[in-house]
């Protein structure tokens, strides 16, 4: 359906642009994924850009829905677009795109009461976008989306017309020329016979901007932008050697000073560092070998959440430090975890994680996306929560329709997931690995210590708000007033049936001495039983206990 051209850049133009950009990225997603060889050849740039814009679209639609009469201002729509992209940004290119949109929004929303802007305003917005994105990247590299964004801003500045459509078209043409030149700026692109994937995605977004103001779709970019060498075995010469093993992404609530310190800390831990945002909310992206340290740095800076940790490779590709472009690993583990500390722990063990914040369980679509991010032929899915079993089953079924072999292990607690992950061996047959992991999880009794939020009936009697509850295998078994005493009682009941290993996962609100007290109790009362302690972060429960 032909679009009605937008003469000025107003709230409706923002809405139209976002919708057209999502459609354009949807059409180009697989092509962009296929040419993704830099900075990591993990074949997900198109998908990450699509998910980032999808979040922006949802935020803009929510603003329009909130208006019963009239429509939002340009500032309302632009801020919503930027915020939606920020909280939904995925991957290196998605994070940079979020900053590009934020830079534009800073100009478009500068005068909160302005109904619209024109060509000069669009020029300024594109310039701010390119400059702010470049500043957000720790070590800018030419031949990437940053180069394409700068070229678009330069071309828009040189356009002689003050019409938004003419400015948008000039930006698009400038970006297209810059994109075609990227193989000459990055050797890895030249060897692969492709242009920069992030820049290709930005071109799709700018093409949608042209269509917004002119009503005319730009020609589909193809041919010269397709991979020259299409078979994986023909691409051995484009492998990037070395490089960190994990991608870590999280949202962070922190002030500017703390983020400045975080930049310095993360820059020393890895590469591909991009931190975007402002006004107390940031999106952090980095590639590191020590995923736990990257998460801990975020905890020191402020409050990280929506943490995603992706392991880049496995098998030969991982052990040699090489990454195969578009090549799926054989097997991966995807796990839902309740806290930042456990996200780091699972990530270090090679799992792709989905953070479940208290009261905000992940939807099946988020689990499907995590399975896709794992980029494996076979996936073991650990929901780590009894209430997530049906959600995980739906996600597994969806992933199977996409040709991924998925096994769902019905873990009901993160400590069962830890036990399963401990015996995971990607080299053995899939069925054998799943049986071993299922057996380890099933042999682990689990418990948690939490504080009651309200009065209620339990299997142990009536509890009042503020009481300390000890739950064993999901049922309340102990009601107490002291966290450490209640935890000790729960642990004694669990060990009365035997055990060889106790796992303690401490939440942020747990007493500082509880681990020391429980370790001493196990050491003194239960011979030959070992204890391991992990920091779980903001995991909801004060303490998680596992007994194997």
Low-confidence stretches: 223-241, 314-326
User: How many E strands?
Assistant: 20
Order of strands in the sheet with the most strands? Answer: 17-16-13-20-18-19
What do we call the CATH homologous superfamily of the largest domain? Answer: DhaL domain
Shape: elongated
Total domain units: 3
- Per the CATH scheme, the topology name of the largest domain is Serine Threonine Protein Phosphatase 5, Tetratricopeptide repeat
Strand content: 15-25%
Mean pLDDT: 86
The separation of the N and C termini measures 61 Å
Biggest sheet: strands, sense, closure? Answer: 6 strands, mixed
Radius of gyration (CA) equals 25 Å
Primary descriptors:
548 residues; alpha+beta; Serine Threonine Protein Phosphatase 5, Tetratricopeptide repeat; Rossmann fold; Hypothetical Protein Tm841, Chain: A,domain 3; 4-stranded antiparallel beta sheet; 48% helix; DAK2 domain-containing protein; DhaL_dom
Quick synopsis:
This protein has helices at 11-34, 45-65, 74-88, 91-108, 119-136, 145-158, 164-181, 187-192, 197-214, 256-269, 291-301, 315-319, 340-348, 364-374, 389-401, 414-422, 430-442, 483-495, 514-525, and strands at 9-10, 116-117, 240-241, 246-253, 270-278, 281-288, 303-311, 322-323, 329-337, 352-355, 376-382, 405-408, 445-451, 456-458, 461-463, 468-472, 475-480, 501-507, 530-537, 543-547. The protein has 548 residues and is of the alpha+beta class.
């Amino acid at each position: 359906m032909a679009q009605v051209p937008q003469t000025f850049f107003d709230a409706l133009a923002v809405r139209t642009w976002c919708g057209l950009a999502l459609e354009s990225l949807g059409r180009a997603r697989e092509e962009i994924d296929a040419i993704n060889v830099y900075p990591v050849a993990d074949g997900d740039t198109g998908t990450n850009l699509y998910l980032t814009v999808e979040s922006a679209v949802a935020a803009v639609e929510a603003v329009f829905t909130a208006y019963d009469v009239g429509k939002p201002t340009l500032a309302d729509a632009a801020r919503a677009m930027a915020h939606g992209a920020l909280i939904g940004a995925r991957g290196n290119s998605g994070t940079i795109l979020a900053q590009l949109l934020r830079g534009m929004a800073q100009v478009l929303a500068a005068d909160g009461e302005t109904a619209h802007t024109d060509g000069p305003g669009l020029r300024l917005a594109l310039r701010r976008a390119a400059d702010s994105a470049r500043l957000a990247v720790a070590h800018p590299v030419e031949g990437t989306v940053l180069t394409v964004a700068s070229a678009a801003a330069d071309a828009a500045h040189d356009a002689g017309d003050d019409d938004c459509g003419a400015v948008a078209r000039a930006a698009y043409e400038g970006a297209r020329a810059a994109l075609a030149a990227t193989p000459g700026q990055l050797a890895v692109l030249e060897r692969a016979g492709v242009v920069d994937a992030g820049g290709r995605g930005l071109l799709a977004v700018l093409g949608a901007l042209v269509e917004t103001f002119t009503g005319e779709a730009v020609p589909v970019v193809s041919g010269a932008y397709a991979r020259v060498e299409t078979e994986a075995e023909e691409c051995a010469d484009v492998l990037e050697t070395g490089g960190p093993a994990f991608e870590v992404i999280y949202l962070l609530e922190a002030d500017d000073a703390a983020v400045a310190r975080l930049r310095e800390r993360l820059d020393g831990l890895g590469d591909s560092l991009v931190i975007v945002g402002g006004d107390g909310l940031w999106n952090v992206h980095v590639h590191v070998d020590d995923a736990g340290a990257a998460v801990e740095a975020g905890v020191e800076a402020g409050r990280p959440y929506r943490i995603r940790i992706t392991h880049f490779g496995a098998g030969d590709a991982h052990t040699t430090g090489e990454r195969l472009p578009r090549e799926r690993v054989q097997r991966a583990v995807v796990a839902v975890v309740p806290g930042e500390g456990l996200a780091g722990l699972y990530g270090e063990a090679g799992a792709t994680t989905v953070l479940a914040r208290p009261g905000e369980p992940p939807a099946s679509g988020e689990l499907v996306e995590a399975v896709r991010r794992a980029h494996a032929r076979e996936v073991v899915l650990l929901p780590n929560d009894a209430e997530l079993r049906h959600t995980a089953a739906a996600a597994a079924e969806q992933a199977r329709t996409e040709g991924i072999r998925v096994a769902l292990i019905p873990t009901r607690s993160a400590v069962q997931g830890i036990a399963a992950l401990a015996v995971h061996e990607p080299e053995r047959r899939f069925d054998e690995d799943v049986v071993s992991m299922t057996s380890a999880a099933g042999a682990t009794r689990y418990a948690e210590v939490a504080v009651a939020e309200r009065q209620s009936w339990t299997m142990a009697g009536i509890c009042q708000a503020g009481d300390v509850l000890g739950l064993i295998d999901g049922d309340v078994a102990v009601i107490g007033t002291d966290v450490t005493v209640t935890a000790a009682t729960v642990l004694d009941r669990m060990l009365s049936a035997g055990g060889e290993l106790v796992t303690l996962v401490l939440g942020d609100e747990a007493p500082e001495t509880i681990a020391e007290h429980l370790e001493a109790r196990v050491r003194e009362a239960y011979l030959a039983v070992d204890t391991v302690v992990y920091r779980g972060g903001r995991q909801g429960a004060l303490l998680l206990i596992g007994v194997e």
